[in-house]
Amino acid sequence: MSASPGLPLDGLKIVELGHYIAAPFATRLLADLGAEVIKVEPPDGDPVRGWGSQVEGHAVWFSVHGRNKLSVTLDLKNPDDKAKLRQLVGRADALVENFRPGQLERYGLGPAALHAVNPRLVIARISGYGQDGPYRDKPAFGAIGEAMGGLRHLTANPGQSALPPPRCGVSISDDLAGMYAAMGLVAACWGIKGNPEAKGRVIDVDLVGSVFSLMEGMLPEYGLFGWVRQPQGAAIKTAAPTNTYLCADGKWLCIAGNSDLIFRRLMAAIGRPELAGEPRFVNNAARCENVAELDAAITAWTVTQQAAEAEAVLDAAEVPCSRLFDMKDCVEDPHFQARDLVMEVADPLLGKVLHPAAPFRFDGVPPRDMVRWTGPAAGAHNAHVFTELLKEATP
Fold it and tell me: Do 156 and 147 meet the contact criterion of CB atoms below 8 Å apart?
């Protein structure tokens, strides 16, 4: 397979025992950064291959989810296949898994067994609640991480009880846990680099804790004052005006006019410059106290404008704003196009398909070069990995 020159993790070898989202998301980031990732799937493939839209039996999402990875199939209940996994571990720098706690041990492949094969192996473990604690054995998916981590409580609209608080639209718990696992893995590999006596580390990341880590100042506020932050809708209680406003075409425009200078520019742009001189709007604290009146004034302007036209007016006034983009907006936007955030790539299983760029850039490496190949079929690299790579690793 093609190498990844110029990428910072070129040469790092990772084994993925991942399914669904969290661990595969972690290794997708690491593979985009240049690491060699060998994704070990059961004989019938990662169950996520059955999710979402399909082209002739191939999952569209997996084109991105499995990109830049080598796919092999092994039955971890089979002794011969288990021996092959140990061989892969023997040549690896790290392993990422997201089984329920204890499952790896039941396969006879827990950290002690893996470190017996490779004492320097870094093992990143992702689970719903973590490897210990009273809830460790409970099943969990991303929605549970949102619920227990505190996020779903905040996504409700204030005062609305007839409808449940909505999820954010993507598997944010899994993605967060995957990012933290990738970060921890790289840190652990750095920690043993250059020290031949150093041993591998075990990293424990969970969905609930990953979401909980985003709760900003809510924990110290509760500890000091007993405050429990409540849902705030589209606004922010500590800054005004910051909200999302309905436009004449039924679309929404997010406007952030927080600072005093930007607020004055905003009021001039919407034809209400006199409000900038009012004592009740003189600074952010005063505006927060009178935010309902302020939001009403802004809405009175936006409902007379098409969203794109209103955005253009505020852009010209240097007021931070954006329409709420859907995927069509993202694909057609000139900034997305200029920065190759949306790339058309050739997928042997799907044909031409759009991929998102990796979320990081490195000088000397064009964004398109970071997508070296698309998500392969399950077991597509069995021969390459089990003959060529393992043969190279054998003394």
Answer: no
Work out the burial of residue 268: count CB atoms within 10 Å of its CB; fewer than 13 is exposed, 13-18 middle, 19 or more buried. Answer: middle
Q: What is the pTM of this model?
A: 0.94
- What CATH number has the domain bearing residue 275? 3.30.1540.10
- The residue type of 276 is A
Q: Is the alpha carbon torsion for 190, 20, 150, 139 positive or negative?
A: negative
| 292 located within any domain | yes
Distance CA 322, CA 68 (A): 33
Which residues make Cβ contacts (< 8 Å) with residue 312, sequence separation at least 6? Answer: none
382 lies in a domain? Answer: yes
Collapse the DSSP code of 134 into the 3-class scheme (helix H, G, I; strand E, B; otherwise coil) and give the result: coil
Q: Are residues 22 and 149 in the same domain?
A: yes
Among candidate residues 278, 307, 330, the one where a domain is terminated: 330
Residue 111 token pair = 């950290």
Mean residue pLDDT across the chain: 96
Whether the upstream peptide bond of residue 165 has omega within 30° of 0, thus cis, is: no
> Is position 24 within any domain?
yes
In a domain, 208, yes or no: yes
Tracing tokens 């390459």 back to the chain, one arrives at 384
Average pLDDT over residues 380-387: 97
Asked whether the predicted pLDDT for residue 3 surpasses 70, the reply is no
For the segment 139-151, the average pLDDT, to the nearest whole number, is 96
Q: Which of 306, 330, 354 is the last residue of a domain?
A: 330
For residue 94, the cross-strand partners are 14, 122
Q: In the prediction, which pLDDT does 389 show?
A: 95
Write the DSSP symbol of residue 111.
Answer: H
Tell me what pLDDT residue 159 has. 83
Catalytic residues: 174
pLDDT digit string, tens, across residues 187-233: 999 999 999 999 999 999 999 999 999 999 999 999 999 999 999 99
